[in-house]
Amino acid sequence: MKIHWFKYAAPQTFFQLSGKCIPSLMTIAALLFVVGFYVGFILAPTDAQQGDAYRIIYVHVPAAWMSMVIYVVMAGWAGLGWAFNTRLSSMMATALAPTGAMFTFLALWTGALWGKPTWGAWWVWDARLTSELILLFLYIGFMALQASIDDARRADKAGALLALVGVINVPVIYFSVKWWNTLHQGASISLTTAPSMVTVMLLGMLIMTLAFWAYAIAVTLMRVRCIILEREKNTDWVKTYLERQ
Amino acid sequence: MMTWLAMGGYGLYVWGSMGVVLACVVIELIGLRLRSKAITGKR
Question: Count of domains in chain A?
Answer without folding.
Answer: 1
